[in-house]
Specification:
Strand order of the largest sheet: 8-7-6-9-10-11-12
Distance between the termini: 25 Å
CATH superfamily of the largest domain: NAD(P)-binding Rossmann-like Domain
Largest sheet: 7 strands, parallel
CATH class of the largest domain: Alpha Beta
Number of strands: 12
Helix content: 25-40%
Number of domains: 2
Oligomer: single chain
Order of helices and strands: EHEHEHEHEHHEHEHEHEHEHEEHH
């Protein structure tokens, strides 16, 4: 039977939130509930025909792909992954298939991210993580939070996440300003937001929420100069991607209390190393990249994954992100037949 691997199922819910019977009836399915290093992945996944990934939790660089000699299908969540070498997969004839984003169920994933962003913001400005720790340890109140009403929310990006954050902010009585490389005055005004320049956003906002896609333009976009513009009473919230923020500069600003605090769901290296400096800072609220991780969201993702794997088992793969891999695999099959003959 074909061997199927489900990677990085940290919460152990992959087989519960979706019906895997169409796959399990025809393939051997193995779930990995912890993160695998590159060498661990090369060893553990050596005999698998199909690998099902969950966002960027496991990287697939060329050197790993070239060690997975049995791999034929890789399912991803997204049209592409920053840590997947698509060219290497195509060269080896490995099909990469993406989700059906037209599926209404994926709207749930789109809702879960801004909900987490707002919750993380609330927890950060009210010091809930620190107070939670103190009360667990037998202590009592030791910090003072701030009220959001009347404050200014600065949105770094006004896409789907930013627009939903704007809606939440209005309910809480906040003023909203925004900036991104492509944002126009008209687009901002259309949703009741005031567009400002980047420097103004960092200097005026009481809370800054990042809602940008990681790209070469946005990598390191928030660095020491931007952090230096922030008020000592301001907070930074990042649930987009870790490398958008210069992590070393952020740690320095937090350690010196040049900004009041930060709420982070994403990091340069994930999972966050046990001895990482962010783990010990009292003015940081941390969550382990769970913006999209809800039962409903994972249900939509894994149901789509089942459909993709079942279609491949039927010999009719769907939603192929690297169609050039089809030609490569077909040529390899024909060469094999010729050699056999």
């Amino acid at each position: 039977m074909p061997k199927v691997a489900i990677l990085d199922d940290y919460a152990g819910v992959a087989l519960d939130v979706a019906d895997w019977l169409p796959v399990r009836s025809r393939a051997e399915v193995t779930v990995f509930d912890r993160h695998l290093s590159e060498n661990e992945a090369a060893e553990a996944l050596q005999l698998f025909d199909v690998i099902c990934t969950l966002r960027e939790r496991t990287a697939f660089p060329r050197q790993l792909i070239e060690r997975l000699h049995h791999l034929k299908l890789l399912t991803i969540v997204g049209m592409n992954l920053a840590n997947l070498d698509m060219a290497a997969a195509s060269e080896r004839g490995i099909l990469v298939v993406h989700p059906n984003f037209a599926n209404p169920a994926f709207a749930i994933v789109g809702s879960s991210v801004p909900e987490l962003a707002w919750g993380l913001m609330m927890a950060t400005v009210r010091n809930l993580a620190e107070e939670h720790r103190r009360i667990r340890e037998g202590g009592w109140q030791a910090t003072v939070g701030v009220t959001l009403a009347g404050k200014t929310l600065g949105l770094l990006g006004l896409g789907r996440l930013g627009k939903r954050m704007n809606e939440y902010a209005k309910v809480f009585g906040m003023e909203v300003i925004a900036w991104s490389q492509n944002l126009t005055d008209e687009a901002a005004a259309a949703v009741g937001v005031r567009r400002v320049e980047k420097q103004t956003l960092f200097s005026e906002a009481d809370v800054i929420s990042i809602g940008l896609v990681l790209s070469e333009r946005t990598r390191g976009l928030v660095a020491e100069p931007e952090l230096a513009l922030m008020k000592p009473s301001a907070y930074l919230i990042n649930i987009s991607r870790g490398p958008i923020v210069d992590e070393a500069a952020l740690i320095a600003a937090l350690s010196a209390r040049r900004i009041a605090g930060a709420g982070l769901d994403v990091y340069d290296v994930e999972p966050l190393p046990p001895d990482h400096a962010l783990r010990s800072l009292p003015n940081v609220t941390l969550s382990p990249h769970v913006g999209y991780v809800t039962r409903e969201g994972l249900g939509a993702i894994y149901s789509d994954t089942v459909e993709s794997v079942a279609a491949w088992l039927d010999g009719k793969p769907i939603r192929i992100a690297n169609r050039d891999a089809l030609a490569k695999r077909s040529a390899a099959t024909q060469d094999g037949k010729a050699s056999h003959d």
